[in-house]
Give the backbone structure.
Amino acid sequence: MTKGEEVSNKQVVFRDYVHGPLKETDMVLSTSTTHLKVPQDSKAILVKNIYLACDPRTKILLIEPGLAIRGFGVAKVLDSDHPDFKEGDFVWGITTWEEYSLIKTPESLFKIHNTDVPLSYYTGILGMPGLSAYAGFFELCSPKKGEYVFVSSAYGGVGQIVGQFAKLMGCYVVGSAGSDDKVNLLKNKFRFDEAFNYKKEHDLAAALKRYFPDGIDIYFENVGGKMLDAVLLNMRHHGRIAACGMISQFNLEQHEGVHNLFNLISKRIRMEGFVVHDHYHLYPKFLDFTLQYIKEGKLVYTEDIIEGLEKGPSALIRLFAGQTVGKPVIRVSHE
Ligand code: NAP
């Protein structure tokens, strides 16, 4: 592989705009060609994609049918016309589901300086999901030692990190997940105090009452819908809710209503939504904090590494179906 060479470039594209639940057949593998050289005076960089993240938001990042899917990933710079990047640098940020990408605005990427942890971690615990967990939990929820914390989709890329941050803060932490295996791992691997399988509970409010007889101080919201309604009934006075995501509503034509909002008033609850991009300035602080705990073995992380770009569509479908155990990451190439 030499600079300027024309190479084939496998891509995953959406066939059309997606309405309703995402299906594997909405995505297709195609092949184009690309020159391994950045146009002069373009300020662009050309990268080889190494890892691509399967995130629930991948569907939202659909820009135009026929173009490669956009999403978070880790990549190696092959050529650069940008003063801040050079050949051989590793970066993470928004890229495209293909082997080689020309990135026209590399300023939006983060350079990876710490390579003594797996590079794939920059799609998860050290990347966008990790920063979402950090910003949502610490900035929005102001946790205090001994508080009662509930995390939904607790085995997800964001949830497993929130729960461990909460344990590091000395909180009591309960998570919900969609299988008994995930529940066991939450308790035994991630050191959650308790966890339950929400699919086996016919009354979510009663389940929460069982785990939080004195109520919930902090709810880290990943799913929305019926779970949010049940949580509102179980919140304590002056509780905080960080609204990170509502995956249960993602594929519905008509979103479910929320019935127990009056609790926000009577219990003086603060519920606040956030978008991780607004918190990118926290990245250096977050990285120092998280790396230290990973190296000390006080933060653990699970990934499901899927070999090959062509397996990306099925991995994304399995993510929405709750069939992935650990953050699904597609390995496109080797470092
Ligand atoms: P995730 O939680 O790993 O999402 C996948 C999991 O969601 C599945 O494995 C499944 O787990 C669960 N799920 C799927 N359908 C569900 C349903 N109908 N009801 C309840 N759970 C369901 O994803 P993530 O990357 O860690 O992100 C967590 C949430 O935060 C997502 O909603 C995402 O969109 C959002 N997010 C927001 C921001 C932001 O800036 N605000 C940034 C990152 C992520 P089970 O087996 O447990 O059901």
Q: What stands out?
A: The first helix runs from residue 128 to 141. The mean pLDDT is 94. Residues 6-124+302-331 form a domain with the Quinone Oxidoreductase; Chain A, domain 1 fold (CATH 3.90.180.10). The CA atoms of residues 249 and 255 lie 6 Å apart.
